[in-house]
């Protein structure tokens, strides 16, 4: 990926005419009508495809680990299917059997004598799970700060739990954060009943030290002091090789970078939503939101319902298309994933959270089991010596399946399901 950076340095570029001029210019007219093309970025697409089944597998590991015997029958796991983002036509047991290096299958008998699959975890998977718990404990302050900052971005410092649950994987929150994290910080968080009768999480106190965006922190190092004081902060911009930015778009982007930067933590109700100044504020909000995620990316559908909480205008996600030098939209896995370009060098995440390292190890464990399974190394269950037929459905009945994977097609591509509404007693 070819990278260049458009930072505001007055006098450094001939095309910059000063921050005040840009501010006045944009208040005389609305949004500039420019359209930048989408160009495939194979490196960032590979980041998305590499994690295709990781989230669903990790959620299942958390659910199984939380059970008393660390083993659950398939009908108990099926209750959580809505949170796994699996395709409707894919049986849960078929998905689990893809990864014998993580899940161990045994059987129990249901009423009527039917044999029901049960799943536990391999020692390797259990070890990674316990390591993750240790990492979460060691980085508790970082986790709490990111959750605080997310709520500080919203109106009323509140988010519905359903919306927060869609982001918890990207934020690095534990699966059971509602019970394992929130109750330990009653001075910071509270569950509330929203006007639409949903349950929400509310931040109880504002932390001025946290109300500084990552762009503002970086500007102290990358930009001149007078530019930072003027508020004309610019976003790092980079394009895929062969992007070919037109002259008109280049001139607009250079001028747009000189516009005043409005912190995503400040009140922006005075901004006209039909101007480029307001658009820059929206870009800043999502720039900060992606900075709060540990992979610096999230699915587009996860932010599509944030318009009201973040006080954004209609069609706010159009900024992703208008600014492909800041955000990349990957269309892999039958969904759209928004990635912060500056966070990656090709496929490498530049700053890795400890949880990311553990998830990468978990991905390698999934891959190992899938490859070993394709070689026929898991034809029999190690737990009870019963041969496991991969074409058996959830209740032990035979079914036809086209689940024979090749090494080149390691994971499935699918549309995501919406997570279930969490139930919290108030």
TrEMBL record:
Residues 380-426 are annotated as: Disordered. Residues 126-153 form a coiled coil. Transmembrane segments: none annotated. Residues 380-394, 415-426 have a biased composition (Basic and acidic residues). Keywords: Coiled coil. Residues 39-369 form the PORR domain. GO terms for molecular function: RNA binding. It comes from the Eukaryota. PANTHER family: EMB|CAB68190.1 (PTHR31476:SF6), PROTEIN WHAT'S THIS FACTOR 1 HOMOLOG, CHLOROPLASTIC (PTHR31476). This is PORR domain-containing protein. It comes from Prunus dulcis.
